[in-house]
Design brief:
It comes from Rhodocytophaga rosea. With 180 residues, the protein is mainly alpha-helical. Helices cover 66% and strands 0% of the residues.
């Protein structure tokens, strides 16, 4: 049971309703349980929705597949059932099994980087960072780390408030997310 229930979209103030409508239109997105929970604070909603432009930058660096795999690795390492399930859906809809990904050593290194950021609260061992530094420019690393931080913030929000997994994601839950 969520600690704070999502807002009733039909009863939000006009500025929140306008922000929801703009978000849906701009990103062809839905107002999920997380977003409706953020709807209790317009500024919180607007800040967290900056995830979308940052994710677009990550996709420019990594490509679509690695962008969602990176986000999944961070969410999984953060033990966030909702976000992990969201990215499991994307992975599975793309025809892959999240438990049996076929990755190059470079791709695995990137996922290890994201997981380590989440698991170690940003304490990335020098050896891992040096390997990442060989693959990505300074501006790219800044974007990747900023995105990891935004993803972790989203994970924390969902975990603290126990935001429920949206119904459309139920078929994509794993054994882990069903029991958490």
């Amino acid at each position: 049971m969520p600690r704070i229930h999502p807002v009733n979209i039909s009863q939000v103030p006009p500025d929140t309703k306008a922000a929801f409508e703009k978000h849906v239109k701009e990103y062809t997105a839905r107002i999920t349980n997380m977003k409706a929970t953020l709807g209790h604070s317009l500024v919180a909603f607007e800040v967290y929705m900056q995830w979308y432009p940052l994710y677009e930058e990550v996709k420019k660096i990594l490509g679509g597949r690695m962008a969602y795999l990176y986000a999944h690795a961070i969410s999984h390492a953060s033990n966030c059932p909702l976000c992990t399930t969201f990215f499991r859906k994307i992975i599975m809809d793309a025809g892959e099994n999240p438990e049996e990904l076929q990755l190059t050593p470079q791709e695995q290194l990137l996922l290890d980087f994201g997981s380590t950021i989440a698991q170690q609260t940003g304490q990335v061992p020098d050896e891992l960072y040096r390997q990442i530094e060989q693959l990505y420019s300074k501006p790219q690393i800044v974007i990747l780390v900023a995105f990891a931080g935004q993803m972790i913030a989203t994970n924390i929000f969902n975990n603290v408030l126990e935001v429920e997994i949206d119904e459309y994601l139920y078929p994509y839950t794993s054994t882990l997310t069903r029991t958490v």
